[in-house]
Structure formats: structure tokens, C-alpha cells
Amino acid sequence: MQFGRSYEEFEVGATYQHWPGKTVTEYDDHLFCLLTMNHHPLHLDSHYAQESTQFGKNVVVGNYVYSILLGMSVPDVSGKAIANLEVESLRHVAPTFHGDTLYGETRVLDKWESTSKDDRGVVHVETIGYNQDGTVVCIFRRKVMVPKANYLEARGGEQPGRPLPQPDRNWPGPEASTA
Fold first, then answer.
1. How far apart are CA 136 and CA 138, in angstroms?
2. Is omega for the bond preceding 20 within 30 degrees of 0, making it cis?
3. How much is the pLDDT for 2?
4. DSSP code of 86?
5. Distance from first CA to last CA of the chain, Å, rounded?
6. Strand pairing partners for 127?
7. Is there a domain that residue 136 lies in?
8. What gap in Å lies between CA 22 and CA 99, rounded to an integer?
9. 74 lies in a domain?
10. Helix, coil or strand: residue 34
11. What domain of life (predicted)?
12. Whole-angstrom Cα distance, residue 146 to residue 123?
């Protein structure tokens, strides 16, 4: 399974559909709100949301929606990233509710080589998130510094830092396992 891409693997106009989706539970939303100290009653108080808002029920906190979509995009976009440089824009265009399932996809808007180091480049992408009905709920654009192939080769290839399993009394090694 691919985890991120090198600069050369990105093509302007390409779209990556992220899989699988994520169903947002009430527990997920409440825990995220409490961990981040966002105690707005729209997200935590069902009576308030029912009686005092246009939605009539709790709305999932937007930063959690964004975080899910960003996380979904990592295997396709930034799994090999050197740095996330900028979130250029972030728009929540429709609410997400408990029980909704989020899906995402990312389109490559542009890419350019680094002017200071020849082993990397910058990729400009737009991610959209939508629910089980296809309603777009969140759109964001970001810039990611990604390595070129020569950067990865110089640091151990596709899985830098991954150790090799060492034979011992519990596992004699690959040659012994096939005998």
C-alpha cells in the first residue's frame, strides 16, 4: 500500500479519493470538544441544540471535521511530507451531524520545485469532504513540501528507518521459516 507520494508522483489535475470513510459518533465529537476545550453548547448540549438552534440537534465541531479529512488525505498526499507549509483556506459549507459518514478527496492544483533545495518540491492541493449523501461539508487548500525520489533514496527508500526482523530463538529467520 502506498503511503504518500514523492514530488515526481504528483500530477497537476489528479484527484485522489480517500478510503475508507469515517462515521462520526457522538462520543468522537464530545471527546474532541473536551480535549480541545471547546465547550460550546451547540456541540455538547443536545437540549440547547434542539431548543435554541436552527439545526435542532448537535453539530459536529468543525475542527474535528477538518482533522478527519486531513487525516484521510495523509496516505494519498502527505505521508512522505517533509513539512506541511500552509493551510491557505478552510471553509465549512454545511453542517456535519452525529451519525454522518465523512468521505474525502483531494485534487492537485499546482506543484513547483523548491528554489533553495533540489531534493524537494511543493504541492498545492484542495481537499473536499462530503457526507453519505454527497453533500460537501468542508473545503480546504494547503501547501505541502514533499521529497523528490533522490531525497528518499538518500534516506533509506520507501520506508526509511524501518528495522529488519532479527532471528532469535522464537523466530529462526526467513530461510528457516520456508523449510
1. 6
2. yes
3. 79
4. E
5. 28
6. 106, 140
7. yes
8. 10
9. yes
10. helix
11. Bacteria
12. 7
